[in-house]
Write a structure and sequence with these properties.
Layout: E1 2-9, H1 14-25, E2 32-36, H2 42-47, E3 50-56, H3 63-74, E4 78-82, E5 90-91, E6 97-98, H4 104-110, E7 112-116, E8 121-127, E9 141-145, E10 149-152, E11 157-167, E12 175-189, E13 192-197, H5 226-242
Length: 244
């Protein structure tokens, strides 16, 4: 079974996340993994059964890359999208972060577009559907992480959710009152599907360059929680069990 892992982007400890994902993939001896830092390697995507992305402010730069992603899914490929895969960040002159819809074909394919998050703090994640292979036997849990707020761009099936009412002052889209914020969802595309898990923030000392030269307190957030690793393992099994 072939997995293509894209791990790259801004403001996160991508090296840490890449290593942790590769360790999880190595638990299954039949998996062979290719690794990339952008969406340009169309040959590896074409050969893969499962695509995994851990990115932030990294999107396809060519129309053919989006077309390749859609073709991969339509043919039956599976895509495990993590954390900031749907994030596009632009810093305004006033320091507030905009999240423009610059690549609507990409965010439309994913089913959501990142819009902001409040400061990192504990929040409750609730199981929305308990009859899915990703959630079966799991209970609601609390986690300290970035609570990702998103705009839906297509039909999705929410499997886990949280809620949020308040402000995200760092982001232009600041005011929120959401009873159901997707944390884990599935989206069918052709014969394939996307599984999106918004948890998994991580940051080391030097990952905010050039915005800040040094981040004093490294963050691991959901990576510190066994339930997150369980969800990742289930996501890998989901991808390989159903991919064509």
């Amino acid at each position: 079974m072939k997995v293509h892992l894209i791990a790259a982007g801004k403001f996160h400890d991508i090296d840490y996340a890449r290593l942790e994902l590769l360790k999880l993939l190595a638990e299954t001896p039949r998996i062979r993994t290719s690794v990339a830092s952008d969406y340009a390697d169309l040959a590896s995507l074409e050969a893969a059964n499962l695509l995994i992305t851990y990115t932030c402010d990294l999107v396809p730069t060519r129309d053919e890359e989006v077309a390749a992603l859609e073709g991969f899914l339509t043919r039956g490929g599976r895509w495990l999208a993590l954390h900031g895969t749907n994030a596009i960040l632009r810093f305004g002159a006033d320091g507030v972060v905009d999240t423009p819809d610059e690549v609507p074909a990409f965010t439309g394919l994913l089913g959501t577009r990142f819009a902001g998050h409040p400061p990192i703090a504990p929040f409750k994640v609730s199981v929305t559907r308990d009859d899915h292979e990703m959630t079966s036997g799991l209970r609601d849990f609390r986690v300290e992480d970035e609570l990702y707020l998103t705009h839906r761009t297509a039909d999705i099936e929410v499997l886990m959710h949280t809620s949020f009412t308040g402000r995200c002052d760092e982001f232009r889209d600041a005011e929120w009152d959401e009873a159901q914020v997707p944390v884990l969802y599935e989206r069918a595309v052709g014969e394939g599907a996307i599984l999106y898990l918004t948890l998994g923030h991580c940051r080391g000392h030097y990952d905010l360059l050039p915005v800040s030269p040094f981040w004093p307190h490294p963050q691991r957030c959901a990576w510190n929680y066994p339930v997150f690793h369980e969800l990742l393992r289930r996501g890998i099994r989901w991808g390989l069990a159903h991919a064509h």
